[in-house]
Design goal:
mainly beta; single chain; four-stranded antiparallel beta sheet; 2 helices; globular
Amino acid sequence: MAGTVFTRSCIVLCLLIHMAMCQECSQPCDCPAESPLCPVGTSLVLDGCSCCKVCARQAGEPCSFLEPCDHHKDLYCDYGVLSDTETGICIAQEGQTCDLGGVIYRSGETFQPSCKHQCVCMNGEIGCVPTCASNIRLPSPDCPYPRRVQIPGKCCEEWVCDQIPQEDTFQSAMAGRSIAYREITDQGVQSESARDNCIVQTTEWSECSATCGMGVSSRVTNDNEQCQLERQTRMCMIRPCHAELEKDIKRGKKCVRTPKSQRGMRFELSGCQSIRLYKPKFCGVCTDGRCCTPHATVTAEVEFRCPEGDTFRKRMMFIKTCSCHHDCPRENDIFLASNSRRMIGDYDNDM
């Protein structure tokens, strides 16, 4: 009897929500000329009528048909929490929690471990974006000795220009490298562009931020028209999570080094999917305590399409070969690069 009453209540609630949806979408779209500016880490999504773009509601915030939850973080609007049938609360889908420094975060929860990072827990994986600008300033005639300084009362460091060299002036700007431009001794000669007078410098790609699932890798380079040092990022997937790779280990062997996806798959990023199907290679596993990491990779652009219809392109790491070793990265370490094994043969490629 109680089950029947509960079922009927759910049906009535769904009918009321459906009627409200029809009334909300009966009018023509009337959207602002410019999309709203959302806080850092908040997605810009379409409202329930697929009409106007709005800032997605976050975990624990009130939601409605026209103010949807952030589906990129696996949040949904639970209308059963509040008595008002038109308003709900954003709740995360069932997923694994995240442990960072002994603090447990729920799947879908957004948090700031420091003023310099905004993070989100996504089914056991932690992803972060910097809140401070990561631009690097090169020496120039009007600013010969740039350096970062900490301003009292502010979280992020700021650039100042010195006219005379100071100790460790270039430490933060060049990370121990030589100056990336040539001084012009002949004042009568003018270069056509900054690139003509540039010594290209590029660091190695960093380790992938996740041991399984989608992660991020980065490098610093001045290979651009302005000869300005910039941080480049690419998405990376060393292996899918929950993949049973041990069954691919051949008899008498202890590792499967570089297994390849047998079926075409689409990469997923923040609720969006790659337009093309791919059969990527992954790094395997070992049964003797060793871990397998990328050894040779290639970087190519992948185009994604979101449920709202928007498309975007992201650099993606594609694995060519992997190596298995005992120098394993620490789990869930998103700020420190503990594994510094060098990858070889990485280059940009148009796929």
